[in-house]
């Protein structure tokens, strides 16, 4: 069960670094947060993660724009139902397009822009943000995945100086 989520962590880490390198002010703000809370005398460890709010916001914004599983895991309707005027027969395979939900301009201000600050006031309420699914069918590895990505991303920011090789995005 844990092996199924390994690739998703790498995908999220890769997209996070891409967004940071395309938004150098965000990268600098993340580095400043790490310097403030950890300093230069030691490496990031898991006890530091709860204090790294901005780095967590970067991860949340990355998951919003680039969910590792953009259509979530398919489900099958156990009963027939009607959703917004559409009749769904029993046994229908259902997919949730979180990529579209996370980029919906009716839900998100500047929906296609990378803005970690949108998460500053805590968790987003309702079903606007669901990169791991929701409820009983949500990803069982959500907390572990966010923890691993937080440690890896924080370590990459803390331990290396990053710069773009060209100005092309």
Automatic annotation (TrEMBL):
The keyword Heme applies. Heme binds at residue 139. The keyword Repeat does not apply. Gene3D superfamilies: Cytochrome P450. Its cofactor is heme. SUPFAM superfamilies: Cytochrome P450. Keywords: Heme, Iron, Metal-binding, Monooxygenase, Oxidoreductase. One of its GO terms (molecular function) is oxidoreductase activity, acting on paired donors, with incorporation or reduction of molecular oxygen. InterPro entries: Cyt_P450 (IPR001128), Cyt_P450_CS (IPR017972), Cyt_P450_E_grp-I (IPR002401), Cyt_P450_sf (IPR036396), Plant_Cytochrome_P450_Monoox (IPR050651). Pfam families: p450. Belongs to the cytochrome P450 family. This is Cytochrome P450. It comes from Gossypium laxum.
């Amino acid at each position: 069960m844990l092996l199924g989520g390994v690739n998703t962590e790498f995908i999220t880490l890769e997209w996070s670094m891409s967004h940071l390198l395309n938004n150098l002010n965000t990268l600098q703000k993340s580095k400043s947060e790490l310097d403030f809370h950890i300093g230069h005398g030691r490496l990031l460890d898991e006890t530091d993660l709860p204090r790294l709010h901005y780095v967590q916001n970067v991860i949340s914004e990355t998951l919003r724009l680039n969910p590792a599983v953009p259509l979530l895991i398919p489900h099958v309707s156990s009963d027939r139902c009607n959703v917004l005027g559409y009749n769904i027969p029993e046994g229908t395979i259902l997919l949730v397009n979180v990529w579209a939900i996370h980029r919906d301009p009716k839900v998100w201000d500047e929906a296609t822009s990378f803005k970690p600050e949108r998460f500053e006031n805590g968790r987003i309420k309702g079903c606007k943000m669901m990169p791991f699914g929701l409820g009983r069918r949500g990803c069982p590895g959500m907390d572990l995945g966010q923890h691993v990505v937080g440690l890896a991303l924080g370590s990459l920011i803390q331990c290396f100086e990053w710069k773009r090789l060209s100005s092309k995005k």
